[in-house]
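Q: Please design a sequence for this.
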């Protein structure tokens, strides 16, 4: 539904006056929101298949459900889909690649020998779009994942292969940063573990630590690259034991000067990462968030504008962590239009960022410091119904992206003209 410029202006004027009564300048809030980048993940476009081979790359290890037509089949189609999605999303962003999205062009190169050459087309595209690139080694979907192990494998040859992959990915991330002039965030997630209860939980973790130490032994300029290690509660086929638990990865980050990566779907269903942010930030310079939405056992649903998403962004903004927390999205849905999934998730993330900057944090903390918890609760509830939608509409209009739901027709037309013609 189209919203007229006059109606947008009327809503903006009303919202500006209302928010001002709470001490909030909506123009400053919009300026700040436009500077916090949210990293957009490439794997939503193609169901985490990748580009390594003519018929795809990482085929095993990640389960994507659904068979909606129009999946991107190669890097050019992923970039085309991303171009459209980014034209419909306000705010700052980066683009997040997995190593399995290397373009080999028929060459026989394995993951332990990748260089920037296999990603140069991505760099050229990112430069044209003026976005930075983030990166992830791909420790799944490969014959060298042996019996559920990579960096923690008892087989030295397996460990050495994946250690070398990690080292190559660091070099590629550095090249991204040097060419694009934007810091590259590299995230290390290894799905190592066992389906049933192991007799020895310690030895794989000792091997994991040693392997990571070997990957990170060369010092790297943090102005170019920030590195995070990500935990996992369980995975399919690894339900009883994961080597890289939250405690292991948090301990590693604390003792090695790395970021810990908190994924919204990698904890027990009663845990939320918004409750962990300020605790981790007492000890770490930076953390990385992978924002997704858990539904029962599945962790990677398209994010909605729910309480947890708002709490995540609220914890970042109200505590002044916006320059110390890296935000990336991590979901993949093949049951709906994949570009629409991108746009819905990214716009929701941007909504939550803007809404967090609009919070009258000073008033809330004043009431709290005065031990007036009644007023604090009352204000928190009143803030929920302030005219945020009017500010969001004005924000989108200022950034020259569709206001309201008018973007849906653009995606539907692209589906008809482009995606429907893909086999």
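A: Design:
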């Amino acid at each position: 539904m189209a919203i007229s410029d006059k109606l947008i202006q009327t809503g903006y004027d009303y919202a500006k006056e209302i928010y001002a009564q709470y001490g909030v300048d909506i123009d400053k809030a919009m300026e700040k929101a436009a500077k916090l980048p949210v990293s957009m993940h490439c794997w939503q476009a193609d169901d985490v298949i990748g580009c390594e081979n003519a018929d795809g790359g990482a085929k095993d290890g990640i389960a994507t459900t659904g068979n909606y037509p129009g999946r991107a089949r190669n890097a050019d189609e992923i970039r085309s889909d991303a171009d459209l999605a980014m034209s419909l999303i306000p705010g700052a962003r980066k683009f997040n690649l997995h190593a399995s999205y290397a373009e080999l062009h028929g060459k026989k190169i394995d993951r332990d020998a990748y260089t920037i050459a296999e990603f140069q087309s991505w760099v050229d595209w990112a430069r044209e779009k003026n976005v930075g690139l983030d990166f992830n080694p791909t420790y799944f979907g490969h014959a060298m994942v042996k019996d559920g192990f990579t960096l923690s494998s008892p087989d030295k040859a397996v460990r050495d292969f994946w250690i070398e992959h990690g080292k190559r990915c660091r070099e590629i991330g550095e090249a991204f940063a040097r060419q694009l002039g934007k810091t590259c965030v590299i995230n290390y997630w290894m799905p190592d573990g066992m389906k049933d209860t192991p007799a020895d939980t310690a030895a794989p973790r000792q091997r994991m630590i040693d392997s990571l130490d070997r990957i990170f032994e060369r010092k790297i300029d943090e102005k170019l690259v920030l590195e995070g290690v990500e935990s996992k509660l369980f995975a399919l086929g690894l339900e009883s034991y994961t080597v890289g638990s939250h405690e292991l990865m948090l301990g590693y980050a604390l003792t090695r000067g790395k970021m810990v990566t908190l994924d919204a779907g990698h904890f027990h269903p009663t845990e939320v990462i918004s409750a962990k942010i300020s605790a981790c930030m007492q000890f770490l310079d930076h953390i990385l968030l992978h924002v997704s939405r858990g539904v029962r056992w599945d962790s990677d649903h398209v994010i909605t504008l729910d309480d947890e998403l708002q709490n995540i962004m609220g914890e970042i903004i109200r505590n002044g962590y916006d320059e110390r927390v890296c935000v990336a999205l991590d979901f993949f849905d093949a049951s709906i239009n994949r570009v629409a999934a991108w746009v819905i998730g990214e716009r929701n993330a941007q909504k939550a960022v803007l809404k967090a900057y609009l919070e009258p944090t000073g008033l809330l903390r004043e009431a709290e410091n005065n031990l007036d918890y009644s007023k604090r609760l009352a204000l928190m509830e009143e803030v929920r119904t302030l005219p945020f939608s009017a500010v969001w509409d004005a924000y989108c209009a200022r950034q020259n992206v569709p206001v309201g739901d008018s973007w849906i027709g653009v995606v539907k037309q692209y589906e008809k003209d482009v995606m429907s013609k893909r086999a």
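Q: Thanks. Anything notable?
A: The first strand starts at residue 38 and ends at 41. The CA atoms of residues 269 and 297 lie 8 Å apart.
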